[in-house]
């Protein structure tokens, strides 16, 4: 089966007043088009940086990124933005960052679906474990419920992949487990997930774990 991502020799350097920081160095990585892949490693190991490269937010300083068979390195800013909109859903660690605060729960699902030209399926609220919340303001949901809704919004866009940066790090363990069930549910619906995380429960749930240390893949 073709890989979703083929990453070869990727490096990311940040220029800082103190000099160049090599956040990611010489990374080779294949990400399958199914299941949960976790980028694991200690703080500062380059997980978020690599995820931003996979999300076509940042361009690597070196190397190539192939998404669904197409090298995305030479694409224009506009084309990368279109690919991001059509193919990639990102979920960040702070639940409110993933939602539109002035819209209702249903409004968030609708906005996500419409942004990708899809039909809205409010039935997903049942699956997310938040039935009956359609007209609620998102701030009335707990952090864990907001994060599950964020993944529901990601699914509403029918992306090729969901990228999640530390999706459980701001949640208590019970809420985090419910979010992990949603991640598993996404993969059962055919949407692969790539998550950057230290969460051992999430690492246990992964189909594939890529361990990073000081910007390099170590296993
Ligand atoms: N915008 C930036 N400018 C300069 N250095 C940066 C920038 N972003 C990240 N870095 C540095 O790059 C390295 C990797 O950071 P990154 O955030 O990717 O690691 P991480 O594994 O996701 O860490 P954490 O788990 O703490 O989020 C670190 O040394 C970090 O300080």
UniProtKB/TrEMBL annotation:
Keywords: ATP-binding, Nucleotide-binding
One Gene Ontology cellular component annotation held by this UniProt entry: plasma membrane
Gene3D superfamilies, sorted: P-loop containing nucleotide triphosphate hydrolases
Domain ABC transporter: 7-218
InterPro entries found in the cross-reference section: AAA+_ATPase, ABC_transporter-like_ATP-bd, ABC_transporter-like_CS, ABC_transpr_LolD-like, P-loop_NTPase
Superkingdom in the source lineage: Bacteria
Keyword hit for Nucleus: no
Pfam families per the UniProt record, alphabetical: ABC_tran
GO molecular function, one term: ATP binding
Keyword Nucleotide-binding attached: yes
Protein name: Putative ABC transporter ATP-binding protein
Species lineage: Bacteria, Bacillati, Actinomycetota, Actinomycetes, Pseudonocardiales
